Amino acid sequence: MRHTSAPGAQARRIAPAFLLVLAATLAGARAAPAAAAAVALPLEDGVVPRPGFDLHYTVVGAAGPYLVVLSGGPGEEVRSMQEIADELGKTHRCVMLEQRGTGRSRLATYDPSTINLAAYVEDLEALRHHLGVDRLLLLGNSWGMMLALTYGGVHPQHVLGVITLGSGPITRAYLGVFSDNLASRLPAENAAVVRYWSDPARAERDLDRATFERVRATVPAYFFDRQLAFAYAMELPADEFNPRIVPAFLAAEKDFDLRPLLRAITAPTLLLQGRQDIAGEANIGEAHQLIHGSQLVFIDRCGHMPWLEQPAQTWKAVAAFLAGIER
After folding, report:
1. Which of 7, 91, 231, 243: disulfide with 32, CB 3.0–4.6 Å?
2. Buried b / exposed e across 285-306, counting CB within 10 Å, b at 16+?
3. What is the CB neighbour count within 10 angstroms for residue 42?
4. Alpha helices, DSSP H only, in 6-55?
5. Which residues of 154-192 are buried (b: 16+ CB within 10 A; e: fewer)?
6. Distance in angstroms (rounded) separating the CA atoms of residues 94 and 58
7. Is 298 strand, coil or helix?
8. Residues 266-322: pLDDT tens digits?
9. Which residues are 54's β-sheet partners?
10. pLDDT tens digits, residue range 110-144?
């Protein structure tokens, strides 16, 4: 989950959007685009018809099991996870899902009837049927973590495994912690930018611009490495987030609490988090306690997007997990 700026918070592409836009709507931020992969992997586009819109995706990699990649937000473009597809596409068919309201999966309206947890879970179930598989392997960052775990609790029999890289809050209370951590880590000049673009009159005149500037200003909070954070912020695409999604989600899920669903998860689950992740350790620790048999891995000197700051340690942990469940 990521943030933008509303009653108290902000977050981007190296930062998960819900938390980016959500934290920025409560608080918000993300990282610089990766260099082109040394070897181009096969690509294949697909469409899943949904009520009122088409759900788009791109498969990266030509062989191996499907692995669905879930970006943050809600409302962040899945291209922010390209480095993940470049790595895991060597052994899996990575389904880069353009979640409802993002990329080519645009909606006619954004309100609680179209943006809610149940709708996102139904999209994943429709994708599973479309792919013709009995069980999904899911990987999510921030809000993508929340969605993956929610699906795992609603449809435990249809999940092969869950990998989370950087945490989203499992309750509304933990979202408050996320937002407070974000605000406390912002340099004074960045906090001033957030306040400037949080002015309701500016947002009313140009919501996209106001959201983008708030999100870009919150990027430093998402990283341990400030140089990487600066590069990420400078390369952040202006259309990285759909600012209409988080307000609709918060209206639909005012007091969300995923804990009952976490208890229902039966699939192998890897929870990987940077020690300096603004989501905080209490949130991921409670998730670990609730998910039976889950593995919890911490990486030091690492923020909200471990695959960007500590790729070697991230991929070592992910490879070991995948080897264990795909034997």
Report:
1. 231
2. eebbebbeebbbbbbeebbbbb
3. 11
4. 17-25
5. bbeebbbbbbbbbbbbbeeebbbbbbbbbbebbeeebbe
6. 8
7. strand
8. 999 999 999 999 999 999 999 999 999 999 999 999 999 999 999 999 999 999 999
9. 49
10. 999 999 999 999 999 999 999 999 999 999 999 99
